[in-house]
Write a structure and sequence with these properties.
The complex is a heterodimer of chains A (260) and B (261). Chain A has one domain. Helices cover 72% and strands 2% of the residues of chain A. Chain A has 13 helices and 2 strands; from the N terminus they run H-H-E-E-H-H-H-H-H-H-H-H-H-H-H. Chain A has a two-stranded antiparallel sheet. In chain A, helix 3 packs antiparallel against helix 8 and helix 9 runs antiparallel to helix 10. The longest helix of chain A has 32 residues. Chain A is globular. Chain A starts with a helix and ends in a 9-residue tail after the last helix. The relative contact order of chain A is 0.14. Chain B is mainly alpha-helical and 261 residues long. Helix content of chain B is 72%, strand content 0%. Chain B has 11 helices and no strands. Chain B starts with a helix and ends in a 6-residue tail after the last helix. Classes of the chains: A mainly alpha (260), B mainly alpha (261). Chain B: InterPro entries: ABC-2_transporter-like. Chain B: It comes from Fictibacillus solisalsi. Chain B: This is ABC-2 type transport system permease protein. Chain B: Keywords: Membrane, Transmembrane, Transmembrane helix. Chain B: Pfam families: ABC2_membrane_6.
Chain lengths: 260, 261
């Protein structure tokens, strides 16, 4: 942990050499994601709700999904860009160090510009909560929100780790990421009850994005869930993280260098 | 003809990755299914409040997912910024061919590849699952093809404009320009939300911008929900962008600086 903090702080210092670029990219990333939400707001403003969820309730789902994904993108850019280690054979240099390759990958770089996306998500959550507070009590939601965000972050990281591990066999993972990260997180911006059965099945099992926001919110927004629904994100996050790490440790044995 | 040769070579290069592209097609279809589910959820019981029915929106989303691969998911800046960064652009500009057509014909090959190996399979997935619109009159197909070609032209020129602007900007702020232009194409292009559903002032404005000509109009013409006069708007934007790019490319020739190294 000590080593991780030391390596990460060195990475932050190197990034901060270009302050204007950092501020510019963070703000534009946040704005771009905000436009995406405004499109959704335009629809719900006109039609009031989607299968029983109003704009502010969907806003909370949307915000949690955005924050989870952005936090993962902030902390683990090298996992996201992992295919370059396979294609350029750079993974060799990580294997010869006396620290786990995963720790090295995580400490190598932080993509702070992605914090803009997390801030945007937090703003959407705050605005939605403000509106919901007129009709519901939000105390429980406020208390539990940090747990939900941490679980969402762990689930998105685990999904990304599984995808990165595939690179040990396929070298390239960009096309898989669309399948395992972008499409599911886009889907998780909206309530799961709108999807057909087969899509729901995927989002509740193999790519469990439903547990990031939808499941706990069923209870917290009085949509028919029980209090046990609050435990599910924690259990799914821990289980999925364990499985992802085991898969990574299994996959790493199949690494073969490029020979360059 | 050198441009035809570049077009074919670019097509052949993309053929190397067709397996991974087929996986990506499944993901593209899932995006489409997600949007269809959203619209079905939103419009159920409220179709009378909407100019489009659930079936219309299903066809709209299916068609727009297909067209994205020919008009929106082009190579960032058509790759021009890479040449600016490593200095290769000085040689490329000095070649006895038009730099503009040199770049555009290569991307054209990629678009032709995408049409066959991305748009077509995605369209097939939708046809076999939720259905795909079949125009009631053959002339619609002719107008749709024309509108699609104009859309590709507008998009190529927007991407070229962003790419060539890297002669003046630093690469870093350039990459954000690409990100922003993609967002504008998605939002003001009507990919997820048809422009009619946007707030009144934004809807009116967006209908006159080039982004509408990239996704919204070609899809509406195919679905027989737009007047053919929108082709004039698309042609107008294509001409404006062509002239702008012609002028800027000439200026770039004067501007080229060798970065050394």
């Amino acid at each position: 942990m000590k080593l991780y903090i030391k390596l990460v702080s060195a990475s932050i210092r190197s990034r901060m050499q270009y302050k204007m670029n950092f501020v510019f990219s963070m703000v534009s990333y946040g704005i771009v994601m905000m436009i995406d939400f405004l499109m959704l707001a335009a629809i719900l403003n006109r039609f009031n709700e989607v299968k029983g969820w109003n704009l502010y309730e969907v806003g909370i789902l949307y915000g949690i999904s955005s924050v989870s994904l952005s936090l993962y993108r902030t902390v683990a850019p090298e996992i996201h860009e992992f295919e370059k280690y396979m294609i350029e054979g750079e993974f060799d240099s990580l294997l010869i160090r006396p620290v786990s390759p995963l720790v090295l990958l995580l400490s190598k770089n932080l993509d702070l510009s992605r914090i803009g996306g997390a801030l945007q998500g937090m703003i959407i959550i705050a605005l939605s909560l403000y509106h919901i507070s007129h009709t519901h009590s939000i105390t429980m939601l406020l208390i539990y929100l940090p747990v939900i965000l941490v679980c969402g972050w762990i689930i998105s990281f685990s999904l990304a780790l599984v995808t990165a591990t595939i690179a040990f066999w396929t070298q390239r993972i960009k096309d898989f990421q669309t399948f395992t990260l972008y499409a599911p997180f886009n889907a998780a911006n909206y309530p799961m009850n709108i999807y057909p059965g087969w899509l729901k099945f995927i989002f509740f099992t193999v790519i469990p994005v439903a547990f990031i926001n939808y499941v706990p919110m069923l209870f917290l927004l009085n949509k028919g869930g029980s209090i046990y629904y609050l435990l599910l994100p924690v259990l799914v996050a821990l289980l999925f993280f364990y499985l992802a790490s085991a898969f990574w440790n299994f996959g790493i044995r199949f690494y073969h260098s490029t020979g360059t | 003809m050198v441009y035809w040769h570049l077009f074919r070579k670019s097509f052949a290069i993309n053929m190397q990755y067709r397996l991974s592209h087929l996986i990506n097609n499944a993901a593209s279809a899932i995006f489409g299914f997600v949007y269809i589910a959203i619209w079905t959820g939103v419009l159920t019981g409220k179709e009378q409040k909407s100019p489009y029915s659930i079936l219309d929106m299903t066809y709209y989303m299916g068609a727009s997912q297909c067209i994205l691969w020919m008009t929106v998911f082009l190579t960032a800046g058509l790759g021009i910024q890479l040449g600016v960064r490593n200095g290769a652009i000085s040689i490329e500009l000095a070649r006895p061919v038009s730099y503009y057509f040199y770049v555009v014909s290569q991307e054209g090959g990629r678009i032709a590849y995408n049409a066959l190996f991305r748009s077509l399979p995605i369209g097939l997935i939708f046809s076999l699952t939720v259905g795909f619109y079949v125009p009631s009159h053959w002339t619609t197909l002719v107008y749709s093809l024309l509108s699609l070609l104009l859309a590709i032209g507008i998009s190529l020129n927007i991407f070229y404009l962003i790419g060539i602007s890297s002669c003046w900007t630093t690469e870093i702020s350039w990459s954000w320009a690409h990100f922003i232009i993609l967002t504008l194409m998605f939002s003001l292009g009507g990919q997820m939300v048809p422009l009619t559903f946007l707030p009144e002032f934004l809807s009116q404005l967006a209908k006159w911008l080039p982004f509408a000509g990239v996704v919204y109009y070609p899809v509406l013409i195919f679905l027989e929900k737009a007047d053919h006069s929108v082709l004039i708007l698309q042609t107008g934007w294509l001409l404006v962008l062509l002239f702008a790019n012609h002028g800027i490319t000439a200026a770039a020739r004067q501007k080229v600086e060798i970065q050394g190294g």
